[in-house]
Amino acid sequence: MRIRDGFPGQRIRVLPPEVVRTASSTGLTGRLLVTDAGYFPHALHHGRQRRRGVSGSIVIFCVSGRGWCEAAGERVGVEAGEVLVVPAGLGHVYGSDDTDPWTIWWMHVRGPDADTAVGQVCGGHARVRVLRVHDAFRLTAELTRVVELLETDETMPSLVRAAGSAWSVLASISADDLAGDPQRAEPVRQVRELLRRDPAAPVSVSALARTAGLSTSHFAALFRQATGGGVVEYSKRLRMARACELLITTTRPVGEIGGSVGYPDAQYFARQFRSVHGCTPSDFRRHHAGTSEPEEGDAVDGRLGAVRG
């Protein structure tokens, strides 16, 4: 026999219907509202069956033990370190494992922003998803914050703060999904960290692949999956971000800034900068300084503009 709650040490908050109606019709909580949230430790025999689903989407993060879920004719297992996402309106049944019952943090969310985030993770609203999270401690902290805010009171400030924390949960899950399996993504994460530490260093895809212990083609494919682009483009974006920072916060010459971010040729630096920001480095600096006065470096930028016609 499955039980819905009543576990020693549990925490649970469910908003009254009138509060849900009011909050769903106004402001930020009209876009995303947490209606239920809780924590069930060692939830032996826990389970719920909802043939028609619920009005909100369900997020269950398993921090230890195991569980399962059945929906749309499919049964999936849920292990420690994985999150189960059940879209709104989807009939389902789930429960904890009988020999290794799960400990879970969970929340129910509704609203158009919640629907968008869940729809992206689930590829629509016709199936559940189980994903392995990249940072279990962070997700636990975020869900703990959601529960704490609902435990505080049912005032609009608390509900808005809970909505913000819930959005952080959904964004983390979506980002982890986009990044792919954490074990496969780890080599890419290390390379990205290497590029961020020294954006001016020469970029060799084959050398970075060797650093990651992967073939060049496999590494390039994983990198593109994790970032949405290639290694060279990612490096250029990092360099340009650093260049923008230096253009705004220092008076160093444009050519010197280009050299410091990996572009010793001032003209090439200006071309690369324009390809990202749509203007020359000097124009960018003047815009952010609130002045139209020419400065050192405009001669190079001007010649480039003349060549481009």
UniProtKB/TrEMBL annotation:
Q: Which UniProt keywords apply?
A: DNA-binding, Transcription, Transcription regulation
- What molecular functions are annotated in GO for this chain? DNA-binding transcription factor activity; sequence-specific DNA binding
The residues covered by the HTH araC/xylS-type domain are 189-287
Region (Disordered), start-end ranges: 286-309
InterPro entries per the UniProt record, alphabetical: AraC-bd, AraC_XylS_family_regulators, Homeodomain-like_sf, HTH-like, HTH_AraC, Tscrpt_reg_AraC-type_HTH
PROSITE patterns (UniProt xref): HTH_ARAC_FAMILY_2
Keyword Signal in annotation: no
Quote the Pfam families the UniProt record gives: AraC_binding (PF02311), HTH_18 (PF12833)
Q: Which Gene3D superfamilies match?
A: Homeodomain-like (1.10.10.60), Regulatory protein AraC (2.60.120.280)
Tell me the domain of life. Bacteria
PANTHER family, per the entry: ARAC FAMILY TRANSCRIPTIONAL REGULATOR, HTH-TYPE TRANSCRIPTIONAL ACTIVATOR RHAS-RELATED
Protein name as catalogued: AraC family transcriptional regulator
